Each structure stands twice: as structure tokens, then as C-alpha cells.
């Protein structure tokens, strides 16, 4: 068997195997919300305007879920009446603004870890708030955001088909797992056939190109947000995997902030969950917002200088 | 059999297939090919995921998907999963299990294009005074120390393991190599935090004049002294003895491996003061 075929199957399987526990948790949280959360309660609690967006973006602190597990929760929250803006802010910030990811980023970057973790959190927070605001504008109603959703009434009207937590969790799990598996296969193919590390290493040291280069890398690699900081850290210093010498911190932060919001596997999941118009606006907006925020962070001079040659 | 019953069975099969993928690999001692089983959290989550999948597969057989919404004015919130889609999910798990009849760990192809020197310029060869007192180390430790306190590495006698990877020579660009052309190569090893998707290679240049080099791609154990390559501003292992070994039980390093005893004393200098030790002895 050729080596690349073995590597392909390992990579594809590993992404799904690693994500399975988190997707199961996400499916059960979603199911619990469906069965036990009264419709409209969160709508009454969450403040309107920027405060609501901030609350959504910070929700990951109390409900930390990875990017795969958070999608079914987003869907359920919106169906339960959470305004689309805060819900989308949670979708994009949740996998970044949470204690687990903060700790792993701090650990990965050694002496500069705390500054990198703070920068990642701040950029992720700002990006999520901006994207939440955009979602609130282009898709103010649940039906504008989600591909399939209840229209004029909530689930309490559907008592006859409220089947219980396990049944709903299974339904959610199988659906998300299908698209996750497909995305994992695509990501593995990209990694094996294109080898993004190699393709992008040559231009990574050019500041104007390094941010989009590392965003492309994050998109293709499709790594979980709990582990991506260790990959980003591997691009710095001596004996790097490839010639990424001189890469600015902003490029690594672009890698760390885009990946949890958008990658190959998430694109497929979003394509299933989001209405086409919302996806066509929101997903490119993620790219633009992350690029501009990291560019601004680079220009500010506040980011740490990382090791390198 | 009703369509709904068929869908329930397929859902159960899909979930059970992914549980089987995990459990069969574990039974064959090959789960470490996919995930970092040395990380207790990852280890526990992987098995918990498999157990949960089995439970849900069993539950799927006894539970019907939420029924279609009776309302006609909107799409139902629980989108129907097409039976073919579910079947594909199950088959994919089985295919991934069957595809690598002998699953292989990441190797040279996965290492890709490493940063390679086109020659080295050593500050010294060391006197091998520590012969017989070599410290077990790993490539991640070396790299970690090189970034923070390169002086601490100088003249350290170590034992390292990794995959031998030759350094390509571009046509028309003669390399400044000390000794035979094959004497300069790299040791490569992968570091994994959670799963293969996040594995990345770490490399160290080796100057090996101990004899004919081991085959390309083989696992080797190298014993030697660390020196500083002034040209590339990176550590180099001047190998005294290199032997081919079998693949280790745990071939993937973990980020925690960089914090072993080898690093004791590193950090006495200012962290990040990785200025090249031009004036090192």
C-alpha cells in the first residue's frame, strides 16, 4: 500500500475520532436545550444590541464547546428564540474564547504564551462580535439564518413529536457526524496531496502575505482549536517543519483565530446548517474580518516578537 | 419493514461502525496511530466517545427519529437524514478501518519539505569527554532548548532517536560538507498533541562520520555530542555511533516531553535570549 494512502486514512479517521466526544456533547447539549429550555426564555434574558453580542461572544466561558460540537447548539439556541446576532457571536467565539483554549495557547508558546493567548482571545472576541452584528443585520430571523427551522411557533406547540433527549441527540449526532466525516476526508486529501506546509512555506516570511498564507493553512489543516496552538508554535524558532522563519505573530494569530471559525470540515457543516444566503455572506466575512483584525494587530505593535532566525 | 425502521437501523449501524473503528484499532494496539494516547484526557475522551457511540447505537434501534412535523407552513426543525447518507457514514468508517491493512505511522512523506542546511559550520567538535555518560533526550527537548538557551546545549552528550532523512542537494550547488557527502542528514520525529491532524515534524541535523549511514527512512538511535552550527544558527549532533533500531512503541512525542529533566538548568539565562553563541567556547 502506498504510504500516502495509509497517511490519508489515518488523518481522516483521526479527525473524526478526536471530534466524536465533542460532537456527542454538543448533540446532547442541543437536545437538552430542546427538551428543557422554555422557548423565549433566553430571548428575554439576553440584552439587545452590543451587550447581547458581547454576552454571546462570552458564552463560551460557561459553555465551552469545540467548533464541531457548537454547531448543533447554535441551531438549537436560535430555534429557542436567541437572537441571531448573539447566537452567531457564540458560534464563532465559543471555540476560541474559552478556558481550555486559553490554557493550551499559553502552554504552547512558552515565554510569550500569555501574550499570545490574550491576543488570540481579544481578536476572537472582536471578530465574533462583528460577525454577530453582521448576522443580526442580514439574518434577523431564525428562518433567515438556518437552512431548516421552525417558522411561526416554538416546539412547545409540537408536544406530540417531542421525543426525548436521546432521540434528538441521535438525530443531531448522525447529521453532524456525516458532514464532519466528509470534511475530514477532504481535509486529509488536502494534507496528503497538497501538503499546505510545503506549498506556503516559501512566502510565509513576507509580512504582506504571511497573514493570508497562514489563514489558508488553518483552513486546509482543519485542526481542533484545543490543539492548534501547538502547531502554530511549531512554525516559530529553529528546526521548524519548513521554512517559516521570520513569520510575524499576527500571521500565527490569524491561523489561531480563523481555524476555529472556518475550515474545510466546518464549511461543509455550515453549508448544511446555514441558509445559503447567510452562508454566502457570513463565511467570506469571517475571512475578511480575521484578516483585517490581525493586520491591525500587527500594525499596532502590541504583539510579541516570537523566536526565529 | 417501514422506511422509518430502516433509517433507525442504518443510524445504529453508522454509530456502531465508528465505535468499531475505535475499538478495533485499540484492540490491535494501534489507537496510538491516530490519537495521542499518552495524553490522559485524549485517551479517556476517545474511549468515552466509543462507549457513548455504542450506547447511542443501541438506543437508535429502540428510538424513532422525531416524527415529521404535522404543520404544513414550514419545514420541520429535525431535518430528515437520507438513508443513503447514513449508509455512507457507516461505510466510510469501515473503509477507513479496512484501508490501511497495516496502518503506518507518519513517515518521511508526511515530514514534507523540511528546512535543510546546505552546509554547516561548527564551532567545534567537542572532545567527547562525556563518553559513557550520555543523556537520554528527544528532538523536541533539543528544539525547545535551542530556542530558549542554545548555550545550554553546547557539548551536551545525548542519545536521540528518530527517522533518518537525507538532506537533498540541489544540482549545481555544491554543499559545504565536512566529510563524506552522506555524513550529513537529519533526524526527524513527529510531535502530536491530540491526533494525527495536529502532528508536526521536528528535525535535527546530524553529522555522522561513524560509518555508512543507515537506510533512508529507518529508525535510528544516535549517540553523540551537541554542537552549534554557526552558519544556520542551530544545534547539530556530531554522532559517535548510529545504529538502526525498530520503531519505538510510542513514536510520537508529546508537547510535555520537552519538560523532562534534560532541561534542568535551562532558563538560568534570560528566557528567549537566543542570540547565537558566536563567542561560545
Description:
The complex is a heterodimer of chains A (309) and B (281). Chain A is mainly α. Chain A has 15 helices and no strands. In chain A, helix 12 packs antiparallel against helix 13. Chain B has a 5-stranded mixed barrel with strand order 2-3-4-6-5. The longest helix of chain B is centred in the first third of the chain and has 25 residues. The C terminus of chain B is likely disordered. Chains A and B meet through helix 1, helix 6, helix 9, helix 10 and helix 12 of A and helix 1, helix 2, helix 3, helix 4 and helix 5 of B.
Key terms:
heterodimer, A: 309 residues, mainly alpha, 15 helices, B: 281 residues, alpha/beta, 5-stranded mixed barrel, elongated
The biggest sheet of chain B, with number of strands, parallel, antiparallel or mixed sense and barrel status, is: 5 strands, mixed, barrel
Rounded to the nearest angstrom, the distance between the terminal CA atoms of chain A is: 39 Å
What integer value in Å does the Rg of chain A equal? 19 Å
The dominant shape of chain B is elongated
Radius of gyration of chain B: 26 Å
Name the helicity range of chain A.
55-70%
Rounded mean pLDDT of chain A is: 82
For the biggest β-sheet of chain B, the strand order reads 2-3-4-6-5
Oligomeric organization of the protein chains = heterodimer
Number of helices of chain A: 15
Structural class of chain A: mainly alpha
Secondary structure category of chain B: alpha/beta
Order of helices and strands of chain A: HHHHHHHHHHHHHHH
Percent in helix of chain B: 25-40%
Strand percentage of chain B, roughly? 15-25%
Q: Would you summarize the structure shown here?
A:
The complex is a heterodimer of chains A (309) and B (281). Chain A has helices at residues 3-36, 41-45, 50-58, 67-79, 84-93, 99-108, 113-138, 142-145, 165-194, 196-201, 207-221, 228-234, 249-258, 264-273, 276-300. Chain A is mainly alpha-helical and 309 residues long.
